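Re: your question from the hallway

Yes, I did run it. Sequences:
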Amino acid sequence: QVQLVQSGAEVKKPGASVKVSCKASGSTFTGSFVHWVRQAPGQGLEWMGIIYSSVGNAEYKQSFQGRITMTWDASTSTVYMELRSLTFEDTALYYCVRELAPNDYWFESWGQGTLVTVSS
Amino acid sequence: QSALTQPASVSGSPGQSITISCTGTYSDVGRYDYVSWYQRHPGKAPKVIIYGVSNRPSGVSDRFSGSKSGNTASLTISGLQAEDEADYFCTSYTTSRTYVFGTGTDVTVL
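Structure:
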């Protein structure tokens, strides 16, 4: 089974950007969809968007439109999620999640999570 | 899109069965058979235990089963074991082409 290995914890100031990486180990993302999900302290999980690795285009939850970008590097089988104009409310644990086959509609593998802390 | 509603906690004794509900709307749970369930132990990555309402991935114990009626999906754990103590959450695809998650349920084995 694939392992999704995410980059380490980040501390950012309000207004800054963060870029989190997610690398597939033991497999690739080719043919899969990759989602990003976050969980703020004491809150539930929130779906942020999806990148279609085969074509490289992405769709984002409306509330993140304009300040989020998901990209895919096929050469390293790594997916990236960049979130800009950070506020304190963006403090959360961010997960990358693989949907193994297109239109499975479920999440086959999860990364270990990357803690992003927004602090002045 | 509001979160799917789950009970905050459910408990049971070893060997018993427990059921966790996941209530949404006709825009998500009621509309599609794309409800999945995940188990998460503290500090670990979530693991899928049910997909497509009632399907178990390879390697998942048959003590876990799922069902759906109307806008409510359910996860049943039979023959409760100590290792089942974890956080469980559901998720559903929605008519907005997004996903919505459940509020999460802490399962305690007494």
